[in-house]
Input
Amino acid sequence: MHPQLFFFLFITFSFHPCSSQKNIQFKSCAPLPFSCGNFTKNITFPFSIDGTSPGCGLPDLHLSCTSDNLAQLMMNNVSYQVKNIDYEKQIMTIANMAYINIDDSCSYLSINTSFDYSLFDYTGNDHNLTYYGCSIPLNWSSSGFYELCNTGDYYYFIAVAVGVFDPLGYDYCDSRYNVSIGKPYSMDDLMKVLADGFDVMWKPGKDWCDKCVRSGGRCGFDESKPNDPLCLWPNGVEILAGLFELPKLVARLPHRPKSSTQLTYEKFNMGVD
Output
């Protein structure tokens, strides 16, 4: 057997801190079914729903169901509809609730996309739009701007060309808004594209949770140390997720006399015959 693989198996089956307790947490962190309108998903880390056990999902990524049967995630006090969760790619599709099923699109344009960069990142498929609010109608089509709509006393323009001037330098334009969309658009279907939402990649569990799940484990975290993520197995074995790579794991294990297996592994890593 390959020495490095053998050492990993040795660690896996010999390191059992608080085995019974962690076995309970493994069972508690089982996927929970969540159904809300057309959205149905088994929810696991990093998300939480009503009924998620402590240490199994993050409160800041809590999903709920609105009275209109829309799956909802709150981010910076802004309500987003959750349209899809792809655990394999770690991508979530969300849409600002303000843009869904609205009759007067213009009255809802004064809403920024509020984004929490500590939890999410944009994907390569996302497009960011900037539009402006002005108090008088302007003929800016030749300057790279397009009028989206107006309320009669307020006008919204979007920049459709690269490098156009910033109208906030003018007395009649006092607002700038940023929104995200997930695909190319035309002016005629912009509101529909906004309602379709955009993709975000979540950061909690990035790089380690997928490895944990593929190994047969479940992702969680230590309640007393929320910054210490855990990979839980049915036999109660836990590995700090940040140490999932074998060399890092060795450095954090409690000190114990070196076995012949450990010595063999160290020699293998140092190139000693």
User: Anything to note?
Assistant: The radius of gyration is 25 Å. The mean pLDDT is 74. The chain has six helices and 15 strands. The helical segments are 3-14, 19-28, 190-196, 209-214, 246-252, 260-270.
